[in-house]
Specification:
By secondary structure, this protein is mostly helical. About 20% of the residues lie in helices and about 0% in strands. The protein contains 1 helix and no strands.
């Protein structure tokens, strides 16, 4: 039995194309598909991203920053 973990896209015609690794031999297999929806890679609206970048640049240019060494103060990390 082979367990293969890959990400695929289902097109609007509901067709699923799967590229299998070369080590899978030709033959007949029973295939089980587990559908686990993945978030889109870039689901942040452009306006929100641009607003965050703009605010970060304003803070950097006006020296409203803190040293990276201070960013972890007060955070309990084990």
């Amino acid at each position: 039995m082979h367990t293969i973990h890959i990400q695929v896209k289902v097109n609007r015609d509901h067709v699923l194309n799967v590229d299998l690794p070369n080590e899978i031999a030709e033959g007949t297999y029973e295939v089980v598909i587990v559908m686990n929806p993945q978030p889109e890679d870039d689901d942040t609206p452009d306006e929100v991203a641009i607003e965050g970048i703009t605010e970060g640049l304003k803070q950097a240019f006006t020296n409203q920053t803190i040293p990276i060494s201070q960013m972890w103060e007060g955070i309990d990390v084990e």
